[in-house]
Amino acid sequence: MSKQDEQAQRAWYALHTYSGYENAVLRNLKQRIESMGMTHKIFDVVIPTEKKIKVTGGKRTPVEEKIYPGYILVDMIVDDESWFVVRNTPRVTGFVGSGTTPVPLSQEEIDMLFKRMSTDVAKHKIDFAIDELVVITDGPFKDLEGKVGDIDEEKGKIKVLVSMFGRETPVELDFLQVRKL
Description:
Keywords: Transcription, Transcription antitermination, Transcription regulation, Transcription termination. This is Transcription termination/antitermination protein NusG. Participates in transcription elongation, termination and antitermination. Helix content is about 25%, strand content about 45%. It has helices at about 5-10, 20-35, 80-85, 105-120, and strands at about 10-15, 40-45, 50-55, 60-65, 70-75, 90-95, 95-100, 100, 125, 135, 145-150, 155-165, 165-175, 180. The model has no long low-confidence stretch (mean pLDDT about 85).
């Protein structure tokens, strides 16, 4: 097979796995690729993750979070042999596609995913929704109740509408300064 034919057939595919077993599937598949001599047809296996900031116990902790839990990506040339190796890996439920035919991901999807995965800036993991009732736990407005008016995930800020002097006043706070009612 010429290099050009290989490039034409080579693509990224999404694999469905048992949720929570993505790391085990990744390890198993990489071992199978090596032991079954498939490195010329299966090139890479990736679990798409991104950096997020979770607030737990009042502390910000950076975490790697799966973008698509229950899925891993495989860069490969699909033929009967390579399909068999991937499909029969323990805890793989199948390729994403129609029927038994794997459908490759588009280049735009792959570019967007890899861009999201390579971002060093962690996003805040926020558990609040607009109009949700919260209580302020810290700062000059401590113990006041209000409702969420705006959420800025990039900065880790939240605007809470607090009733003061007979009108709703927006107060900008850090996520750590509020909790759900």
